[in-house]
Design brief:
The chain is mainly alpha-helical. The longest helix has 29 residues.
Length: about 650
């Protein structure tokens, strides 16, 4: 078996235990309802643990004993700082029951199914999201070699070879791997599922607390599983849509992002928690804000450390705007000194926990341009004056259909008593929805893909989902004008949106195991654990291997050495170009291409002894792995060189040189 179910379950239990141990006492600041606190606790706890743990384990070895001691210490600190009676931000009169929790748990298994192996005959395949889970190599690197993580995607003599990436989420997965003995792939699968569940829980909390209706919890589930309306429009109108819309990569709903980029979803979920903590500090006169400010600082650091965009740039936009809008209240309440001190503590804790990450990631600015301005292209042709309204009237409606339209309806339909009671929360809600969307429209990232545009709006998407669920729970089926509009919206958009989301789930969870095909590369992928075990037997965990960057290229939707990334548990000295550009960001685009082309040509069979020497001495490839699928297989240079010697092989399948 490529993965063990028992290891996945144990890893999920460990991450949940860490979250509840640290997060349960802190949840008192957010809600007084015990069941609602159960929804919030794990993501709060993991948020605090992620940032604090990364800081501490830069100085401590990552061992099971040290991890348990740190978790117990953080739990004790959280209990101490949260002892006594605390006036929470919200007092929810209702909460979802056990049946809802069971259904939510089962539905949140779907993102994990998208990254587990699928068997068809003698072949094994994986869903498309496994491409973004090549970062399992980061999980293994942290679990085996500690922090700061070396770059498992590239190594070069004379370079610090430090990983430049936001890795707090992967650190949490690595911790469960260390405690349970699970592989990086198994720990990644487990935390992906838990992230989906925790994200669902926080959206549900916001939906139920804001609407004061327990039924909102049930509406959250279908709304999180909706997909883009573009496939529906194409089905009805053929290619008409593509004739006038720019061929720009679209935005993505929760059911797409949860299996593809759980670290960003985790970060966006932490962003919602941070915003709510910020509101309590700004608007609560009940005291105890100093302790909450400390927790908020750690959560902010984890949000940034898990995603530069979803919990970094989004909060950098949202929090100052919400703060400015609350100034008049703070001045009227004569709480300016108290708020200033609390937020200063938050800033200090954030910098303390995130300083190493900020330092590591800022080094990319010496070689790469990270962000650029634009107007998001909507229509064919360079007509920005049409693209500006088109973004709000066409693109967002097509991508986020029912939740976007429901947010608009909710904005104009709030009862007057709700407006007065929740004015401060609703102000933050509007900013949390609109600021990330404006950011997506006007900025894009340039390192590789437009990750900024796809991920920075995750908090906005989560908030709109919560508001849509609240709207449906209180107005659907009623005879009022608002009730009829809400009902028509649900009837027209909910079913087609869920069908497009279900199509994506089927493509990534079941299509291969149902339709195949059985292929030579799929068979080789199934057998590759034996080869990687042999590699681990002769290669220490702090050394890199050279393996064809395009090995098993057809297993993933884009060519990439996924077998190495998720199974080897060893570093690679020169991977696929896309991996190099994304995870070796210190390389210029030309340098990344040169490295990639060097290894591709070598494994195509064009390697000379000098190139083998450069592979070993310049790129630090201590181990060379060649398979029968490589052009280098059987070449005389491998048998007659002074650089690498054959030390292990499986006849006709693979050979290992050192």
């Amino acid at each position: 078996m490529l993965v063990q179910t028992s290891s996945i379950i144990s890893s999920a239990l460990v991450s949940s235990a860490i979250g509840y141990a640290i997060g349960w006492p802190v949840s008192k600041y957010f809600d007084s309802n015990v069941r609602m606190r159960l929804l919030l606790s794990p993501v709060i706890g993991l948020g605090i643990f992620g940032a604090a743990g990364v800081s501490l384990f830069h100085f401590l070895p990552i061992t099971a004993i040290n991890l348990i001691l740190v978790v117990l210490s953080l739990s004790a600190i959280a209990l101490w700082l949260s002892k006594g009676t605390i006036d929470p931000l919200l007092r929810s009169p209702a909460s979802p029951g056990f049946c809802w929790s069971t259904v939510a748990f089962l539905l949140c298994l779907l993102p994990t199914f998208e990254i587990i192996p699928q068997y068809y005959g003698g072949s094994v395949g994986v869903g498309h999201p496994i491409w973004d889970h090549a970062k399992i190599a980061i999980v293994n690197e942290i679990a085996q070699n500690g922090l700061p993580p070396a770059n498992p995607f590239h190594s070069e003599a004379g370079s610090p070879n430090t990983l430049i990436y936001y890795y707090v989420w992967h650190f949490i997965a690595a911790c469960s791997s260390v405690i349970t003995g699970a592989t990086g792939w198994e720990a990644d699968i487990a935390l992906t599922g838990m992230t989906a569940l925790f994200s669902t829980a926080v959206v549900t909390w916001l939906a139920v607390a804001r609407s004061r209706s327990a039924n909102a919890a049930w509406w959250v589930l279908p709304l999180l599983f909706v997909g883009s309306l573009k496939p529906v429009v194409r089905f009805v109108c053929g290619k008409w849509l593509d004739k006038w819309m720019a061929p720009q990569h679209g935005l993505q709903t929760w059911i797409i992002q949860a299996p593809w980029v759980p670290q960003h979803v985790f970060s966006g979920t932490l962003a919602l928690i941070a915003i709510m903590a910020y509101l309590r500090i700004l608007f609560s006169n009940a005291g105890r804000n100093m302790a909450l400010a400390m927790f908020m600082g750690a959560i902010l650091a984890s949000a940034y450390g898990s995603s530069m965009w979803a919990g970094g740039l989004s909060l950098l936009l949202i929090l100052p705007i919400v703060g400015v809008l609350s100034v008049s209240h703070v001045l009227r309440a004569k709480r300016l000194p108290e708020v200033f001190i609390s937020l200063s503590v938050t800033a200090a804790i954030t910098l303390l926990c995130a300083a190493v990450l900020i330092s590591e990631q800022s080094s990319v600015l010496h070689t790469r341009k990270v962000v650029d301005f634009w107007v998001f292209p909507i229509f064919v042709g360079d007509h920005w004056f049409l693209d500006v309204p088109g973004f709000w009237l066409v693109l967002i409606f097509l991508e986020f259909g029912i939740i976007y339209l429901s947010f608009i309806i909710w904005s104009f339909a709030r009862p007057s008593d709700d407006i007065n009671r929740y004015a401060h929360i609703d102000c933050a809600i509007f900013v949390s929805v609109l600021a990330p969307l404006f950011c997506t429209q006007l900025l894009h990232s340039t390192i590789m893909y437009n990750d900024l545009g796809w991920r920075v709006l995750i908090p906005s998407m989560l908030v709109m989902t919560a508001l849509a669920a609240g709207l449906f729970s209180t107005h659907i089926g009623k005879g009022t004008l608002l009730g009829r509009i809400t009902t028509i919206t649900a009837i027209m958009l909910l079913t087609p949106s869920i069908l497009t989301g279900a199509k994506s789930v089927y493509s990534n969870t079941s299509k291969f195991r149902v339709e195949g095909p059985e292929s030579e590369e799929g068979t080789a992928f199934k057998a590759s654990p034996e080869m990687w075990k042999a590699v681990r037997d002769v290669t220490p965990p702090d050394e890199a291997v050279a393996n064809n960057p395009l090995d098993l290229a057809s297993v993933t939707y884009a060519p990439g050495n996924i077998s190495w990334a998720i199974l080897s548990q060893r570093r690679h000295c020169g991977t696929t170009l896309d991996f190099l550009r994304a995870y070796a960001a210190q390389l210029t685009p030309k340098k990344a291409s040169d490295v990639y082309n060097f290894f591709v040509r070598a494994f195509a069979g064009l390697a000379t002894e000098d190139q083998l020497r450069a592979m070993k001495e310049k790129y630090l490839c201590r181990t060379l792995v060649v398979t029968s699928r490589d052009g280098l297989w059987g070449k005389p240079v491998l048998d007659n060189n002074s650089v690498y010697k054959l030390i292990s092989e499986k006849k006709g399948k693979w050979r290992i040189y050192r």
